[in-house]
Amino acid sequence: MLSLLGTLTAGGALTAGTGAFSGVQADRGINVNVAGDASAYLGLVPASGPNGAYADVTDGDLTLDFTGNNGNIGSSISGGTGVNSDAITWFESVFEVQNNGTQEVNVTISPLTFFDTNSGDILLALLVPSTTFPGTFTLGVGDAEVFHVVIASIGDGTTSGPSIDGTIDIVAEATS
After folding, report:
1. Digit-coded pLDDT (tens) for 105-123
2. Span 54-71, mean pLDDT?
3. Phi-psi label, residue 52: left if phi above 0, alpha if psi -120 to 50, beta otherwise
4. Could you give phi then psi for residue 81, rounded to 5 degrees?
């Protein structure tokens, strides 16, 4: 009889504890910080090494600058003001995409190519991820993908040659 009572009591507790409800109102706190590209959950930072100078975090956003206006490499520092005409110039390890979050993510970057034409001159820039091409890759927690940049200039480009001013779209989604 005692064991039967214990069984009925446990069954009653199970039935009463189903968690069914018709409504709840509760006030809870939430804290959200907006971080610049360098310290966000998806970090966008200059790569370590000398070519990281072509990438900079300005006003919280990563920018790539291969002109003489770049304060990290411009005419006041090294004398360079741009890439050579009629040449292909490549820069290894310019910037990184880092997973500073808590789960693995699939990352897509587009476009990877940029171009402009002016008076028969052509300027082409290509962003090249170090491990996969095109720009879709998976980053584990704490992992990073390094990007290189290849720039082709066709024509003399000595006067008012073409220039590139574009935007990169970056999307990261959790894998599970």
Report:
1. 999 988 888 888 877 788 8
2. 85
3. alpha
4. -130, 0
